[in-house]
Write a structure and sequence with these properties.
This protein is mainly alpha-helical. It is elongated, with a radius of gyration of 19 Å.
Length: 198
Amino acid sequence: MARRQGFDRDEVVRAARTLFWARGYEAASIPELEAATGIRRSSLYNTFGSKRGLFDAAVQSYLDEVIRPRLRPLQDASVAPGGLADCLTGLRAAFERLDSMPAQHGCLLVNTAGAPIADDAQVARVIADYRAELATAFDRGIRAAHPAIGTEELCQRREAITALVVAAFALARVDAEQAVRSIDAALRLQLDGAASAH
């Protein structure tokens, strides 16, 4: 008979996610992961196979529990005209709360893109897919707010807003105020011409 785990796997993943988010994959040591998760190295390896396995679980948790709830209104079958503006406003508020994870540590995946682990093909693919998911959601939000928008302008706005959001995540760790300004620029771009598009 298999021995039952004496811990909640999701709670362990969330605790590891916070550490990886704050410290990065390379800097987060096994002793720090043991301390953060409350489980021993042997349990960590038995459950996740390796530190990398735990990191992969943490990234999936980040996407499912942090990123996708924020994007969900832009991924529903029907997107409200103000959906993208609401999404950006919520992100702006997160950057303004200086004790929040986004304000203190930016984005787990944007941070990972600049780390050595991004040389791994699987990790690089996850990061590329993440950016594509952001761009697709923003595209739907732009279309909902500007139904008469032309294809070229739509592409320009989508790419600019995506770049501004990624830049905000990259800047947040060193300059939260500049991250807010980057989101403000994205908001202005999204709201520009919204009334005339209807």
